[in-house]
Amino acid sequence: MLAHGPVGRQITPERLTRHLLLLADSSTGVAALSLLGSEAARRGLAVTLLQNSASGGLPPRLLQADVEYRSTTPEAGGLLGALPALLPWADELVVAAAPPLLDTLAALRRARAAPFTLSAGKPIRAVPLFEPRSGAGGGDLLPCGTGMCGACEVRVHGGWRLFCHDGPAFPLEELRLVEDEPRDD
Ligand code: FES
Predict the structure, then answer these.
(1) DSSP letter string over 136-168?
(2) Which of 86, 109, 155, 171 has the fewest CB atoms found within 10 Å of its own CB?
(3) What pLDDT sits at residue 65?
(4) Which of ligand 1's atoms lies nearest the C-alpha of 141?
């Protein structure tokens, strides 16, 4: 799992966003979104961070006082299960999760299916949590964090982006995470 640095571009909420919903799958997702949450709250936005975790939520001492924190579990339906109750409140979402969940969210929104029936136009940015790409010999590439190695390539419509340079957040509708075509290289 890629987990280095602050990398890439700062995630800045949209100008008109007043209610920011952060969805974090696992503690890795919380780590990816916690700085954004505290910065947005400091600027006066109402921020709710929902964590899905099989092993319980974060210890209270690690929570930002000005960020509303909620937790769920895979058994309770995970992030997708909790989303219908929170989505109407949110002006914008940022989701840090593995590709299958991001792909499911994108498909539901494209189809305007529940819970996006009335909310398909809300901006959603996605922070993909994924394993580094394998090198030519089959082993994992060691992520460089500088845009040089290609270990963090993220597939988007029309090509590839680098998580460490162009990310960490991408518009959900631009991602094409499920590999359905072979690479050209
Ligand atoms: S980690 Fe992004 S190019 Fe090396």
Answers:
(1) TTSSBP---SSSSS-TTEEEETTEEEEHHHH-S
(2) 171
(3) 78
(4) 4
Does residue 152 line the site of ligand 1, with CB under 6 A?
A: yes
Given a cut of 50, whether residue 4 has pLDDT beyond it is no
- Residues 49, 47: Cα–Cα separation, whole Å: 7
Per-residue pLDDT reduced to its tens digit, 49-64: 999 988 766 665 666 7
pLDDT > 60? residue 182: no
All domains of the chain, ordered by start, with CATH?
A: 19-131+167-174 (3.40.50)
Residue 42 in contact with residue 66, Cβ under 8 Å?
Answer: yes
Could you tell me the pTM of the whole model? 0.85
Most ligand 1 atoms within 8 A of CB, residue of 162, 166, 170 to mutate: 162
Ligand 1, atom 3, lies closest to the CA of: 147
More confident residue, 178 or 22: 22
Distance 14 CA to ligand 1 centre (A): 27
Q: What is the mean pLDDT of the chain?
A: 84
What is the 102 CA–ligand 1 centroid distance (Å)?
A: 21
